[in-house]
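> forwarded from #structure-qc
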């Protein structure tokens, strides 16, 4: 199995692409199509570039910074932080 198929997002896109052929072609041919699509995405420079641009970025952290409203000197900013907005 191509390593790209282990990525759930890529596997889902490939499954969407072959979905019209499921039930129409034998399962072995659909599996072959999935492998060929994954191989093309892995080896074709243009396809790989498009895939990198389309694939959602993985985020390790949200980027949110929590703060205790009691630690904020500006009461308006503290109130805004309680509502989830910057002051």
């Amino acid at each position: 199995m191509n390593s790209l198929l282990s990525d759930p997002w890529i596997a889902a896109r490939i499954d969407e692409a072959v979905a019209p052929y499921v039930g129409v072609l034998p399962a072995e041919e659909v599996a072959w199509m999935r492998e060929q699509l994954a191989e093309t995405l892995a080896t074709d420079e243009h396809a790989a570039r498009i895939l990198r641009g389309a694939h959602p970025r993985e985020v390790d952290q949200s980027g949110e910074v929590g703060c205790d409203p009691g630690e904020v000197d500006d009461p308006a900013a503290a109130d805004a932080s309680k509502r989830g907005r910057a002051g």
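QC bot note: The chain has a mean pLDDT of 78. The chain is about 55% helix and 0% strand.
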